[in-house]
Design brief:
This protein has 565 residues and is mainly α. It has 27 helices and no strands.
């Protein structure tokens, strides 16, 4: 189905007069509902993973629990790496919506198996299934880039998905911490000997599966395809969602009849340039704007999607690798991978750090580097701390990050963040040395620091990556490679940090894993400093379709009185 928004966004008068297309609020909401399922499922395991590994009785050495916890986290991300490029390429061929829905279904299957896991092997298989079937990280970035074609909307748009992740980061750990081991936490409601006693981590995963199913239904009924060429296909799911809304009085205005005659009549009556936002998701698919008599008779020729492909092929498959993966694209992908490595290391290691019990025979620390201690917090407390982190991240993404990103720009902000990131990992292990009454204050300050930096770094990198793409039709491939790279780094990060954390506890250097993350962050700063502003921004001639000067040239040729050559 082709939306009128593309015609409005790329119409020559809009490009030249600087008209900003409306923000796609409704489709971003639908996409956000699909997105929130994954952080709930992903983050929900962190409050209890330490205790789950302990219940598997793999090792009696508690210092090695972090290693196995890292393996569980890495199983998902390593599997996601192995299929990330495949899902990205597939989304370029079949569309974004089928791939997104497949990823959600894979997540639901994964959490159900994980909840029934009796041992580490099944737990690893469950997480790997989720990673193999889920390529949503890269496809979501592509979908947002295709929905939001104006540079003016980028700061707002690229912080919505982090906001959604934050909401999931609040709900997931709270549910995971509160519902794990219910026979211990709520013995009156969940008696010993029941299924909840046999599978103590099933309940939070059932909740996650339910949320994911809701996301799948929402996606089928209301999510629009955004792929430039696949919009033409008929979507019976959208038609069903439109019919359902038409039966609900409160939503009836959002579900107007869209048969062929009414759609053609509406297109005839409306001006070519319409600044009112069309209701996405409630349009039929058989008729495209260029087939309308209104547009065929206009003085401006219709713009072929094939002409937007720099190689006049069909999608990104005909673009050469060297033309897709230019130096700016490669630098952004590498920066994304390094960022994913050390931020995922923090996310996995910090709950283990909080759950680690103090040593039975404490020794006198030999500062500045040799010391071992722990917080010894239970799963409920860890879940509350992680949820508070998510609440803070939600607030700053809603009210602080968009204006900061707009004021400083993606490149300048990203360069500052990657330079300063290593200090976070140098300081974090010293929290255990604080006096008891100041420990939680220190934890809160570190989490504020971490959340602020991560909330700014990821959307900045996403904007730079989208702007560096040589063609809109290559975005799926680029984001698929970026997602695979990030998944590989996220796979190795928790495993390596788990090994280093165990070695550090045994050797007396409990900060070893954190300090190694600091070195990784320094390497990220070296790469990040080489990223340059996209040329289209420097020239100031970017069109609102991903700021690509090639598309501006196509539009200019289409607007000329002579036929485009």
């Amino acid at each position: 189905m082709r939306n009128n928004s593309f015609v409005k966004d790329t119409h020559p008068s809009n490009v030249r007069n600087g008209a900003v297309p409306p923000f796609p609020k409704r489709q971003m909401l639908v996409l956000a509902i699909c997105r929130i399922c994954e952080p709930i499922a992903f983050m929900g395991i962190f409050p209890y993973i330490y205790f789950m590994i302990e219940d598997f009785h793999i090792t009696e050495d508690k210092s090695r629990i972090s290693f196995y916890a890292g393996m569980v986290t890495s199983a998902f991300t390593f599997a996601e790496f192995s299929t990330g490029l495949l899902w990205g390429r597939l989304s370029d061929k079949v569309g974004r919506k089928p791939v997104l829905l497949t990823g959600l279904i894979g997540t639901a299957l994964s959490v159900l198996i994980f909840g029934f896991a009796p041992n580490l092997t099944v737990a690893l298989i469950a997480r790997a299934i989720g990673g193999l079937l889920n390529g949503n990280m890269g496809v979501l970035q592509t979908t947002v880039a295709e929905l939001v074609t104006s540079k003016e909307h980028q700061p707002r748009a690229y912080t919505i998905m982090p906001v959604v992740w934050c909401l999931g980061s609040i709900v997931g750990p709270m549910i995971g911490g509160a519902l794990a081991r219910p026979c211990i936490s709520y013995p009156a409601l969940f008696p010993a000997g029941s299924i909840w006693d046999e599978y103590p981590y099933l309940l939070p995963n059932l909740f996650s599966a339910f949320v994911v199913v809701v996301g799948v239904i929402n996606g089928i009924l209301f999510l629009e395809e955004t792929h430039p060429e696949k919009k033409l296909r008929r979507d019976r799911g959208l038609e069903l969602g439109n019919w359902i809304l038409s039966k609900l009085p409160i939503f009836r205005k959002c579900a107007e009849s869209r048969d062929e005659k009414s759609k053609l009549a509406e297109m005839e009556a409306q001006p070519l340039i319409d600044h009112d936002e069309q209701l996405p998701g409630y349009q039929t698919n058989e008729n495209s704007p260029e087939n309308s008599p209104r547009i065929r008779s206009a003085s401006v020729p219709s713009i072929s999607w094939d002409s937007l492909d720099l190689e006049s092929g069909h999608g990104s498959s005909n673009l050469g690798v060297s033309k897709i993966f230019t130096r700016p694209v490669v630098l952004n992908i590498i920066s994304f991978g390094i960022l994913a490595f050390h931020t995922m290391t923090f996310d996995q290691l910090f709950p283990v750090f909080l759950s680690t019990a103090p040593p039975d025979h404490p020794t006198t620390p030999s500062l500045p580097f040799k010391f071992v201690d722990g917080f010894g917090l239970d799963s409920k407390t860890v879940g509350i701390i992680l949820s508070a982190q998510g609440a803070y991240q939600l607030l700053i993404n809603m009210f602080i990050i968009p204006p900061v990103l707009k004021h400083f720009g993606a490149r300048r902000l990203f360069r500052f963040l990657v330079i300063a990131y290593f200090l976070l990992y140098l300081i974090t292990p010293y929290l255990v040395l604080l006096p008891e009454k100041y420990r939680m204050i220190g934890v809160g300050m570190v989490l504020v620091w971490k959340c602020t930096f991560a909330s700014m770094a990821y959307p900045s990198n996403a904007i730079l990556t989208a702007d560096s793409s040589p063609s809109p039709l290559a975005l799926g491939t680029i984001n698929g490679v970026a997602a695979s790279t990030a998944s590989l780094c996220r796979a190795f990060g928790p495993t390596i940090s788990g090994i280093l954390y165990a070695v550090g506890l045994q050797s007396g250097y409990s900060g070893l894993a954190w300090w190694c993350s600091a070195f990784v962050a320094i390497s990220g700063a070296i790469v990040g400093l080489q990223i340059q502003e996209p040329q289209s921004h420097i020239d100031g001639n970017a069109a609102p379709t991903n700021n690509n000067p090639e598309i501006t040239n196509v539009i200019d040729r289409a607007a000329s009185p002579e036929p485009a050559s």
